[in-house]
Amino acid sequence: MNRENKRRSYEKGYYKTHACTESFTCKVCGRPVVSAGAGSGHRNHCPNCLSSLHVDNEPGDRESDCGGIMEPVAVWVRKNGEWAVIHRCRRCGALSSNRVAADDNPMKLMSIAMKPLCLPPFPLERLEEMTELMGGAGSLRR
Q1: 74: nearest Cα among 93, 92, 97
Q2: Where do the RNHCP domain residues begin and end (predicted)?
């Protein structure tokens, strides 16, 4: 059974209380995705490219009619130290947070985590000037 038909096959809220054990093919990278190895009963993104589909309005409800590609745009660390991926829908712009699975691609996770450092929202050449404007010493030399 494919992911698009799940909402029609089960009653509302089914996936909030039941594990999702079906496999699917990633719409972005084309790799087969199985629930085994995720470390959880709720596999919701591809472990290779970390992409997902916009199928939920609330986790597990399968109520979204959007169906767009949810692309990984950031990672964050929860209070308990667990990492989570922030996904943004390419079609409607909705944001969601999903736990990192045990078999997720560590290089992809690190590349997403490092993106703000590699592509800062300001020119690095102006760092000294901006530090001075904010009341800091402004010098990068010791």
Answers
A1: 97
A2: 22-110
Query: What is the C-alpha to C-alpha distance for residues 38 and 53, in angstroms, rounded to an integer?
Result: 17
Domain ranges of the chain: 3-133
Taking a C-beta distance cutoff of 8 angstroms, is the pair 54, 64 a contact?
yes
DSSP H or E stretch at residue 3: helix 3-9
Measured in degrees and rounded to the nearest 5, phi and psi for residue 118 equal -80, -30
Would you say the C-alpha torsion 20, 25, 27, 28 has a positive or negative sign? positive
Nearest to 88 by CA among 77, 96, 100: 96
At 138, phi and psi to the nearest 5? Answer: 85, -5
pTM over 0.85: no
**CA 49 to CA 71: how far, in whole Å?**
9
